[in-house]
Design a protein that fits this description.
heterodimer; A: mainly beta; six-stranded mixed β-sheet; 11 strands; about 55% strand; B: mainly beta; seven-stranded mixed β-sheet; four-stranded antiparallel β-sheet
Chain lengths: ~110, ~110
């Protein structure tokens, strides 16, 4: 089955700095890679996703890159703000498979 | 459009008891997945249902079971509760059969086993 590893588990940055979270996956058949943000006491919410036919995707301050050959993908947050503080989860799957999540990264943005 | 609704929000049960959790997906969504979230293990997949059929099952003991009704609402049951079953149980619904589409999560049911 799929195995997703996520690093770092904790990340502390100063407001305005960039944050990068990295994930690796094991199943070469995986073709969908979503990122979820979970604020304290709230449900996980999709913030961005990427499919294997695309190498990079951006949405305002958030971007995701995918390297299919190396089987890793990364989340980039620029100009971080205190409201970006949350736990971020990466995940991987293909059409018939269950969604497998990474272990999560607790991002703390210090004002 | 209403989001994914889970009931109850909080539950306290005693070891050895059994519990049933409910998930109502977004209207029109036929795929429902269940996850267990704990501080140490992250989000662990339990099972997934589509059109009343279980399609995938995670690596959990047989004490964990589920079902889906014709209106796509889903329930999960945990029998003979253990202390280690204390967790946040999340369900997620999808509009499509394919797993590589967006999943919308409910707010979860926080289960505490004492």
């Amino acid at each position: 089955g799929e195995n997703v590893e996520q690093h770092p588990s904790t990340l502390s940055v100063q407001e305005g700095d960039s944050a990068v979270i990295k994930c690796t996956y094991s199943d070469s058949a995986s073709n969908y890679f979503p990122w979820y943000k979970q604020e304290l006491g709230k449900r996980p919410q999709l913030i961005i996703d990427i499919r294997s036919n695309v190498g990079e995707k951006k949405d305002q301050r958030i971007a995701v890159t995918l390297n299919k050959t190396a089987k890793h993908f990364s989340l980039h947050i620029t100009e971080t703000q205190p409201e970006d503080s949350a736990v971020y989860f990466c995940a991987a799957t293909h059409s018939g498979n269950m969604l497998t999540f990474g272990g999560g990264t607790r991002l703390m943005v210090k004002p | 459009k209403a989001g994914v609704t889970q009931t109850p929000r909080y539950l306290i049960k005693t070891r050895g008891q059994q519990v049933t959790l409910s998930c109502s997906p977004i209207s029109g969504h036929r795929s429902v997945s269940w996850y267990q979230q704990t501080p140490g293990q992250g989000l662990q997949f339990l099972f997934e249902y589509f059109s009343e059929t279980q399609r995938n099952k995670g690596n959990f003991p047989g004490r964990f079971s589920g079902r889906q009704f014709s209106n796509s609402r889903s329930e999960m049951n945990v029998s003979t509760l253990e202390l280690g079953d204390s967790a946040l149980y999340l369900c997620a619904s999808r509009a499509f059969r394919e797993m590589n589409t967006e999943a919308f999560f409910g707010q979860g049911t926080r289960l505490t086993v004492v």
